[in-house]
Automatic annotation (TrEMBL), chain A:
InterPro entries: NrfD-like. It is found in: Cell membrane. The chain crosses the membrane at residues 47-70, 82-111, 123-148, 168-190, 230-249, 269-289, 310-331, 351-369, 376-401, 421-442. Keywords: Cell membrane, Membrane, Transmembrane, Transmembrane helix. It is a multi-pass membrane protein. Pfam families: NrfD. This is Polysulfide reductase chain C. Belongs to the NrfD family.
TrEMBL record, chain B:
The chain crosses the membrane at residues 55-77, 97-121, 189-211. Coiled coil: none annotated. Gene3D superfamilies: Cytochrome c-like domain (1.10.760.10). Residues 280-365 form the Cytochrome c domain. Keywords: Heme, Iron, Membrane, Metal-binding, Transmembrane, Transmembrane helix. This is Cytochrome c domain-containing protein.
Length: 468, 380
């Protein structure tokens, strides 16, 4: 079991051979000089400009959250019967964004997709930042976040325990586990890279910081052996986890009886949607990174092409899921389900339903064309569309289902307030601030992993003797 | 200084050169052979004769432990310590515990894989290793492949080791001193760490104690206590009269308390008890009588209650001839309006309770003045 699957070229027919993973001549040394140099150079003006924008957005979010704390949750548009609105929409949205990172770093690793090595680091970082943004929402939604630790089952003077039959508690466990595992995965991957940075930096301060973070990594063969085993195990565990987290998030809805939520298709449908939205975000960010950080030889058009293909296939799964939702509503012969489904296409919020369908199903179909998959214009258009579409999908699921359920006398139109939008904007600010900072202080490409798959990186005579 | 040296590093430029040198270095049997590379090299474990990593087994054991822990914890809480029925499921319905079991299993397994690899197997963090302070380390973490022959005992011959590596094709050779064993995980270190944790706990405890004492509740944390609501019997600036509680609108009647028997007692004589004489009604009447009438009229209704003479009035002996012949309506009227020293019971008793107690008074009277026929009713 190795970091990348060594495939001896002889066994594989010509047509199935993977094309080169990098463009031009890349050596381990040149890779370090290219990637590890960023943290040591002064950022360009554009970077500061971008940071100013994202920090402003984050500040708006902090102000909105502060306002919410001082006035209470009433500052938001949530009101009977729509008690879940922007807070939960944004939570599901951000958790979903994170899933692409884990998919790329874990599932594609198990599938021996070697192209993942160049983009895994960035995608994993985005996972962590997205989960940070996601966690903000349930925290502020509890109203008194300083008591949020009540969510954990710990012995207390109130002699109360948590309810283990509640999907909301499952969520607490799932999201916390997801965050810890992602962080562990990311950090373990970073250790050898930080060791490289430690040994090249000339600044005293950086040397101290990197020395501590690299925990004394020295590249010993015995260490690598355990390291690779740990990486493989983590990949296997994270694979199960990435499928479980959004399934558990979908249980928050699916285990209730609200028409439009109570459906067995929810877990796979949510997982596919999460990967869909996450890939869109990764494509968007990678295009910018590739252009502004001069990484065109490492993050190649081929990477973008493959990722666009994933987006396209996920879009088809989403299309199927939407049809299944309609089918379930029709086949159930349940008038509440009928009504709920018709609300998605014709109701007060019908426009949101159509935004969802066109952004998630119709626009991505352009990616069937190879030209579109190779064009920044189309892929950014699709990625932005999918991000908007997936946000609206959660709006449709949550607000449309809640605002008209079994009791017509309780029906009400939900309207978000400025504070709602402020918090949403704020999390985008926080997310991109973290992305920008990450791009400047840590290696954006897992240099160690890429080194291992460069041509001539592995001994030429190594045969199958150690591959059981 | 061969006697103080600990290991000799030979640097190679390609992984192929490194792999070719390994068997030669091992054959020399001068010491333990270890390689340092910028990334994992395929086949190097076999070439160096490493055993398989035990990490998989560790992770499996800890994962299973995580599953058992999570199941036991949830079962104990939900079925034994705090059995609350939710969703109509039995307290011990274990199916709902599976998601959290899964999460905890993954959590245990991940931490074992990550931290077990770092701490237990690789013995990191360790900052004192000579390779870290060698000249060659910048190459090792970049694009050079190093092979080390490391001292196993005092008799290590660094010159011979250097020669072996040179012969095996090393482009450069570096002799390293013995490792600077850092004080990690010595008993002294553990004791000091425990002492540190203890001190930290004491400090944190005292800090919490004084913080909560001096700053009991800060806004917005005390909003739960300070709600903008009216408390019963409290003043309020909301209404003009300054009262928090307001009188009901004039003429308001509570449900079940429509005024009845408003005329004289004689006029009420014709009222008929609307309740049937059932067990339930008598039980209800008995309850009302015990709670409301017994203190004055006594448990038998003979006017001898537990009330002392200080009360002044003399409760009527309901067993007297006069009251036994009283129509129901007049008793009812007395309950509603009161009479002389007897207060009105209208505010406490609903319409049904009033009539139920009338039935009960009748039962008391009959019980104290039973006739022979009554016995027959009782005997089957």
């Amino acid at each position: 079991m190795k970091l990348d699957a060594a495939t001896s070229a002889g066994d594989i027919p010509e047509g199935l051979l993977e094309p080169a993973l990098t463009v031009g001549r890349v050596t381990p040394g040149s890779l370090d000089d290219q990637v590890l140099a960023f943290p040591e150079t002064k950022p360009p003006k554009q970077w500061y400009f971008a940071l100013a924008i994202t920090l402003t957005a984050a500040l708006i979010g902090v102000i909105s959250i502060g306002y919410t704390f001082i006035t209470g949750i009433g500052a938001w548009g949530n009101s009977s019967p729509v008690f879940w609105a922007f807070d939960i929409i944004n939570f599901v949205f951000w958790v979903g964004i994170g899933h692409a990172g884990t998919l790329i770093s874990a599932i594609l690793f198990l599938f021996r997709k070697r192209w993942r090595n160049a983009i895994a680091r960035f995608a994993e970082a985005m996972t962590i930042f997205a989960v940070i943004c996601a966690v903000i929402f349930p925290l502020i939604h509890v109203g008194r976040p300083w008591l949020a630790y009540w969510l954990f089952p710990y012995p207390n003077q109130r002699a109360l325990w948590t309810n283990f039959r509640s999907p909301l508690l499952w969520d607490v466990f799932a999201v916390n586990t997801y965050f810890s595992v992602s962080l562990m995965f990311w950090y373990l991957g970073l250790i050898p890279d930080i060791a490289s940075m430690r040994d090249r930096t000339t600044s005293k301060l950086r040397k101290v910081i990197y020395t501590i973070l690299a925990v004394g990594w020295r590249g010993a063969a015995t260490h690598w052996q355990h390291y690779e085993k740990a990486y493989l195990l983590l990949a296997g565990l994270a694979t199960g986890l990435v499928l479980s987290v959004h399934s558990v998030v979908s249980f928050d809805f699916a285990t209730s009886v609200v028409p439009g939520w109570h459906m067995t298709i929810f877990p796979p449908y949510f997982v596919a949607g999460a990967i869909f939205a996450g890939f869109a975000m990764v494509v968007m960010v990678l295009v910018v990174v590739r252009e502004t950080m001069e990484l065109k030889n490492l993050i190649t058009m081929r990477h973008l092409d493959v990722m666009n293909k994933v987006i396209l296939s996920m879009s088809c799964i989403m299309g199927y899921s939407y049809m299944m939702e309609g089918f379930t509503a029709w086949y159930s012969m349940n008038e509440f389900l009928h009504h709920g489904f018709m609300n998605i296409v014709t109701g007060t919020y019908g426009w949101a339903g159509w935004v969802t369908i066109s952004c998630n199903i119709l626009i991505p179909q352009i990616l069937w064309f190879k030209k579109a998959r190779a064009s920044y214009f189309w892929m950014i258009l699709v990625a932005v569309g999918v991000t908007i579409g997936m946000w609206f999908e959660r709006f449709v699921i949550i607000v449309i289902s809640l605002h008209q359920d079994f009791l017509p006398s309780a029906w009400r139109i939900y309207k978000p307030t400025m504070v709602d939008f402020g918090v949403l904007l704020g999390t985008f600010g926080i997310f991109f601030t973290l992305v920008l900072l990450f791009a400047r202080v840590l290696p954006v490409i897992a240099t160690t992993e890429v080194k291992a798959i460069l041509p001539d990186a592995q001994p030429s005579h190594h045969g199958d003797e150690h591959h059981a | 200084m061969p006697e103080t040296s600990y290991s000799v590093l030979g640097i190679f430029e390609t992984p192929d050169a490194l792999m070719k040198a390994i068997p030669k270095a091992r054959a020399a049997k001068l010491g333990e052979v270890e390689a340092y590379t910028p990334y994992p090299i395929h086949g190097i474990d076999d070439a160096l004769g490493h055993r398989k990593s035990p990490l998989g087994g560790m992770v499996l054991v800890m994962g299973i432990l995580g599953a058992i822990t999570a199941f036991g914890f949830q079962y104990w809480i939900s079925a034994i310590d705090y059995p609350i029925i939710t969703g109509g499921k039995a307290a011990n319905s274990w199916e709902a515990f599976i998601p959290i079991m899964f999460e905890v299993t993954v959590l245990f397994a991940t931490f074992t894989a990550g931290l077990g690899m770092l701490f237990l197997l690789n013995k990191l963090p360790f900052f004192g290793h000579p390779v870290l302070s060698s000249k060659s380390i910048t190459g090792i973490t970049r694009d050079r492949y190093a092979l080390a022959i490391e001292a196993e005992d005092e008799s290590f011959d660094s010159a011979a080791a250097a020669q072996t590596l040179k012969d095996a094709g090393a482009i450069e050779v570096e002799i390293l001193p013995a490792p600077d064993r850092s004080p990690f995980l010595t008993s002294n270190f553990i004791l000091r760490a425990l002492g540190g944790i203890f001190t930290a706990c004491v400090v944190a405890g005292l800090a919490m104690f004084f913080l909560t004492k001096w700053f009991p509740l800060l806004a917005p944390m005390k909003y739960m206590q300070d709600q903008p609501r009216l408390n019963a019997q409290k003043a309020s600036t909301f209404f003009k009269d300054g009262h928090g509680m307001q009188q009901p609108v004039a003429g308001t009647v509570a449900r079940g308390f429509l005024p009845t028997a408003t005329g004289t007692q004689e006029e009420a004589a014709s009222l008929v008890n609307p309740l049937p004489r059932t067990k339930e009604v008598f039980a209800e009447g008995r309850k009302v009588y015990v709670n409301r009438c017994e203190v004055c009229h006594g448990s038998l209704g003979n006017g001898v209650g537990s009330l002392t003479a200080a009360y002044g009035g003399k409760p009527a002996n309901l067993q007297s001839q006069m009251f036994r012949e009283y129509p129901d309506g007049k008793i009812y009227w007395a309950i509603v309006n009161g009479k002389n020293a007897m207060p009105s019971h209208a505010p406490y008793l609903s319409e049904n309770e009033r009539w139920a107690v009338v039935h009960y008074v009748r039962a008391l009277q009959r019980a104290q003045n039973a006739k022979d026929e009554d016995l027959k009713v009782v005997a089957p």
